[in-house]
Design goal:
Elements (H helix, E strand, L loop, with lengths): L1 H15 L3 H16 L6 H16 L7 H11 L3
Length: 78
């Protein structure tokens, strides 16, 4: 939490000494951040829904974390 407070203080100090151009840039950044939609597209949601359904219908068809990890380690020579 201390890092967040320090970061906020630094940002406030920079805003207090900023020129108009920087203030407009900061404002545009904040506006674009607030406008961003967070979530899944309908296509991604459909894909995930299909995978969840398959998993519920075939719960033993998956691989363990150890199997996945070993496969990746072999594939990437780790």
């Amino acid at each position: 939490m201390g890092v967040t407070i320090d970061l906020k203080k630094q940002i406030v100090e920079k805003i207090n000494s900023a020129d108009d151009k920087l203030l407009r840039m900061i404002n545009a950044l904040v506006d674009s951040y607030q406008e961003e939609e967070v979530g899944l597209s309908p296509v991604h949601k459909e894909i995930l829904d299909e995978r969840v359904k398959f998993h519920h219908e075939h719960p033993n068809d998956g691989k363990s974390w150890e199997e996945i990890k070993n496969s990746l380690m072999q594939k990437y020579d780790l």
